[in-house]
């Protein structure tokens, strides 16, 4: 039985109001493993603070987990102890490098397959695709991910999210992604006010009030 339960978005603050319905439970007091690693070296990373505030507004408790600075054992323990997993936006390639380096890519994938709800924002949404090389024209830099040898990702969905679709300042670069890969990959563009809800083998795009 496919137990996957995922909430994939571009900008969590804009769609956080949809999370309780996705969760199907009272979120007050629930814990979220909060992984901000993708935004660690980005000049623009205000979305980490807004996501944190959105979770707090929902009454959730945050377990901060920068996977690049804690041990694999600690990562495993915190994932086990949390009710939800959240992976922030930022540099997808640095994120994947750190996941592979620590082995937490396998830990997170295992949690997802067992049914632990996963929330991905931007890079966190891209991460669950089979591979992230389709986004190389967006934020790939060998300098930021010098240890990354493979672009294979978690592979827990069969589609490829394109976050911030038709949203500034990403319009031109996302149009380029779509031009290059629309006929090659199962692309799923989403705006800042949309989220992809995955339940087992089904998925739907939902939209928050603008």
What do these coordinates show?
By secondary structure, the chain is α/β, with parallel strands linked by helices. It is 34% helix and 19% strand. The protein is built from nine helices and nine strands. The chain has helices spanning 12-15, 19-23, 46-57, 72-81, 92-102, 104-114, 123-126, 136-139, 171-181, and strands spanning 5-9, 31-35, 61-64, 84-87, 118-121, 160-162, 187-189, 194-199, 202-207. It has a seven-stranded mixed beta sheet, with helices on both faces. It has a two-stranded parallel sheet with strand order 6-7. It is globular and about 45 Å long. It starts with a strand and ends with a strand. The model has no long low-confidence stretch (mean pLDDT 95). This is Type 1 glutamine amidotransferase-like domain-containing protein. It comes from Segatella cerevisiae.
Query: Which of globular, elongated, flat, extended, rod-shaped describes the shape?
Result: globular
Q: What's the mean pLDDT score? A: 95
Number of helices: 9
Task: Please give the number of β-strands.
Answer: 9
Structural class computed from helices and strand pairing: alpha/beta
- Spatially, the strands of the biggest sheet line up as 3-2-4-5-1-8-9
Radius of gyration: 16 Å
Can you lay out the helices and strands and say which pair or pack?
Layout: E1 5-9, H1 12-15, H2 19-23, E2 31-35, H3 46-57, E3 61-64, H4 72-81, E4 84-87, H5 92-102, H6 104-114, E5 118-121, H7 123-126, H8 136-139, E6 160-162, H9 171-181, E7 187-189, E8 194-199, E9 202-207
Helix pairs in contact: 4-6
